[in-house]
Design brief:
68 residues, mainly alpha, two-stranded antiparallel ribbon, binds zinc ion
Length: 68
């Protein structure tokens, strides 16, 4: 397991976790304030809200709650 120094950590605005800076860089290599995990979740929820299939959304939400 790698030792991460606090100097390389950033606190996510959403999940309030201290994560490595790598987790805050998006596809355009811009530094952002929410980690990739939260951004990924937001993207999933955005996609789900655009779908009328609620069954898929519920299943994915359950999967996410067990992952966290
Ligand atoms: Zn986060």
């Amino acid at each position: 397991m790698d030792i991460v120094t606090t100097g390389n950590l950033q606190k996510c605005k959403k999940c309030q976790k201290n994560l490595p800076l790598e987790a805050f860089i998006n596809e355009n290599t811009q530094q952002i304030k929410t980690c990739n995990i939260c951004r990924h979740k937001a993207t999933l929820q955005y996609k789900q809200s655009n779908q009328s299939n609620t069954e898929v959304g519920l299943l994915t939400l359950e999967e996410m709650s067990t992952t966290i």
